[in-house]
Amino acid sequence: MPRRRQGLLRRLGPGVRHGDGDVDDHVDHDRRSVESPPLEAPHAPGAPDQSASWRLPIQATPSERTPPEAPTRSVSGDGAHTPDPDAARAGGESAPASESASEPRPTRTAPITADPAPLGLAAFALTTFVLSLFNSGLLPEAGEPVVFGLAFAYGGLAQLLAGMWEFRTGNTFGATAFTSYGAFWISFALLEVFFADRIPEAELAVYMGWTLIAWAIFTTYMYVASFKVTGAVNIVFLLLAATFYLLGIGDVTGTEIVTRIGGFVGIVTALAGWYASFAIVTNATFRQRVLPVKELD
Length: 297
Fold this sequence. Notes:
It is elongated, with a radius of gyration of 45 Å. It has eleven helices and two strands; from the N terminus they run H-H-H-E-E-H-H-H-H-H-H-H-H. Helix 6 runs antiparallel to helix 7 (146-169) and helix 9 (201-225) runs antiparallel to helix 10 (231-253). Mean pLDDT is 78; it is low at 1-41, 47-60 and 66-95. By secondary structure, it is an all-alpha fold. A two-stranded antiparallel ribbon has the order 1-2. It has a domain at 117-286: Serine Threonine Protein Phosphatase 5, Tetratricopeptide repeat (Alpha Horseshoe). 63% of the residues lie in helices and 2% in strands. It starts with a helix and ends in an 11-residue tail after the last helix.
């Protein structure tokens, strides 16, 4: 056998010597294999090496098709996340603590809101006090129109605003109470000034009495809810409910003595409301507990 062919057979390795004819066939076949390398898919820049033949078409693996998600940095206050550019430039790794600590982070800051409760209680107490002076008979009825301006501006509008501001602070009880009683005083002033003369005088007291009883019912369930507020506010609602019931029953039945008693209870209610307002505003101003209000929650 020629030496050149023997050298070629040694390069081809074992397993091909089945006979001389077979050797020639394998040599020819292997010569073609050596001279013409196997057809391979073109190697795309950046793609992994395609070592297996006939892997067409070239397809990127899922990890190559989808870029890695950019790292995120939590935002204080609302739990949202924003892309971290420093970590993205570092190849998806979080930025060092020294770098991230020096960067300002967005925060959500609640605006400073004053407590509107002292305003609402003061507006309620002053208007109730002046009206109760007339209901109790301590002042003559001729001067009763002085209540109408107070009822509209202070007991009505100011207390209504306090209720709106209580919505902003998240105080459901205060928002409901101040908004309702502010609307009560506004409706009272409008009734006395514009609409009372449209109701027969003999029936006005009865209709007014039932309106007061309706407000007494509202005050009763607000009194139940006040057991989770403070002792001072709880006493105010207890006295206010009694005032509404006495005034309403006195008007419906035409019993003047009941109306007078309701007037005196109204004066005590106003004093309790003033104390609650005084305690809250004083404690807030001095930034310490000066006057007790007895937290019930």
